[in-house]
Amino acid sequence: MKSRIKFVNALISLTILMFGMVTMTHSTAYGTACPAFDNKSDRPLWASLGGWGEIAGPCGNFPPDITLDAPQNNMLLSGTQSLTISGSVRDNDGSGNVLTINYQIDTGSAQTIQTFTPANSQNQSFSHAISSTNLSFLSEGQHTLKVTVNDNYGGSKSATRTFSIDRTPPTAPSLSLASKTESTASLSWTAAADSSGISQYEVYRGSTLVSAVGTNTAYTVSSLASGIAYDFSVKVKDLVGYETSSNTLHVVTADLIAPTVPTGLKAANITTSSFDLTWTASTDNSGVVASYDVFRNGVQIATVASASYSVTGITYAGISPTGAYSVKAKDVAGNISSSSEVLLVTTLPNSPEADDTAVGAYAISYGTTYAGYLSSATDKDFFRYTAATNGVDAVSLQVPGGSNYDVYIYDDHAKYVAASVQDIGESEEVIFKVTAGKTYSIKVVSAGSGISPDPYKLSVTRAMATKYKVEYNYDANGNLRSKTMVPLPY
Fold it and tell me: Of 2.60.40.10, 3.30.1330.40, 3.40.50.10790, 2.10.220.10, which CATH number belongs to 263-345?
């Protein structure tokens, strides 16, 4: 009976020993499942029964874990950006494993990021940046990044990400004008091409950003001024930040606004067959007045670029006006202003002898300069005008160089009123009191020497003074030569 008991015990011991050996032998194959462990010393639960010793060895090793935070999958990089790899790893056993982290791009060789011995079952962070220089060997397009953690027992785990590289800016859009009004410009452009994709288009007026329009290829710019020139362009940006500008488009908005009316139309340098018209220049919303149309008796006779025109080829028509002159302004868009005031102009008689008497005096008016000639030392020219209001008038005579001309004023009864008798080469001016509605005659004569072939210039204006005194001019013998109304200050 005892011998049977001993045999059974021996058989049980042998069975337990064989099972333990099989289990230990089985656990040496890395990555296969070990028996269930208790909470003491990595031993099978059944090993706690009856004096089973501590089990040490490879059955306690498990592959490390890796968590990859960056880069994000399908990340886009420009040619100047680096690629950052970051995350954490963990050793899953307490055997003092040495962990090594490396990365591999496509089929390239593995590059070590870090080697360390982490604490058991604790996360260990890591980070590494691959510079744009070290990425420069890669072609444009998509690539695969593989990050692997290895332990010194041959265990490993990997994480992969894809990323793309774009080193080429987008193609340039071709900008054109679809339509325009006086305050808008509708722009359109061809779509740009890019390997990474288009982020947005930006519309510029000069250097000022008007609007970002997403991926649209048309935009209407509003709140523009009529008839003004603008420069527009479009900038395209791709998904990695590269940008390209379109052509610059020069647009002048529709102009519906006419220039201002020309004012101050005057005639000067009047001769027997010609005179000069001048006026105050017009302005236009576009900043440019293209031209002026000159009219005589309602018929256009000339188009000029500046605010003056010389009328020539006039035939004498006695004391009647030779024509009614007016001017209109035109801008670059063809808008035409209203007409200026109408100016009646009479040229001088053809013969300087035709007005040698007060009866045949040549009619003149305020504010116009008249040109005339003295043919000899005995020649004399008469002019006449009617005073507009009570007050003081001034008659001015510009004498040609080297000449000695004098001016005398008479009332409507041929009575002497005033005169100016300056020396040779000096201009004359007579200021005298007038009565509204009365006609005054002006006589221009030579002082006996210095006759010029050039014309003198005569004008009559309203004087500013309201107070005046009479000055008398006597010769050496005491004879009265002239008397002049001299204005006094207010």
Answer: 2.60.40.10
Residue 25 pLDDT > 50, yes or no?
Answer: no
CA–CA dist 470, 485 (Å, integer): 5
* Alpha-carbon distances of 90 from 116, 159, 338, 384, 423, rounded to whole Å: 11, 14, 90, 119, 119
| Integer angstrom CA distances of residue 315 from 59, 268, 323, 326, 457 | 129, 17, 11, 19, 20
Residue 9: pLDDT band (50, 70, 90) is low
- Whole-angstrom Cα distance, residue 269 to residue 345? 11
268 is written with which tokens? 């000067």
Q: Is the dihedral of CA 431, 434, 436, 438 positive or negative?
A: negative
Token couple for 118: 């982490």
pLDDT of residue 10: 53
Please report the beta strands in 167-206, taking only residues with DSSP state E, as ranges in sequence order: 175-180, 185-189, 198-205
Tokens 């256009």 correspond to what residue? 300
User: Other C-beta atoms within 10 Å of 278: how many?
Assistant: 17
**467 pLDDT higher than 70:** no
| C-alpha–C-alpha distance, residues 21 and 53, integer Å | 13
pTM strictly above 0.85:
no
CA angle 199, 200, 203 (to 5 degrees): 160
CATH topology of domain 175-252: Immunoglobulin-like (2.60.40)
What is the CATH topology of the domain spanning 65-166? Immunoglobulin-like (2.60.40)
In Å, how far are 7, 18, 47, 79, 461 from 21, measured between CA atoms?
21, 5, 12, 60, 138
Rounded Cα gap, residues 459 and 295, in angstroms: 24
Torsion angle of the four alpha carbons 66, 72, 75, 78, in this order, in degrees rounded to the nearest 10? -80
Q: What φ, ψ does residue 11 adopt, rounded to 5°?
A: -65, -40
- Location of structure tokens 């519906």: 256
- Split at pLDDT 50, 70, 90, the class of 123 is confident
**Structure letter (DSSP) for residue 97:** P
Cα 346 from Cα 63, distance rounded (Å): 116
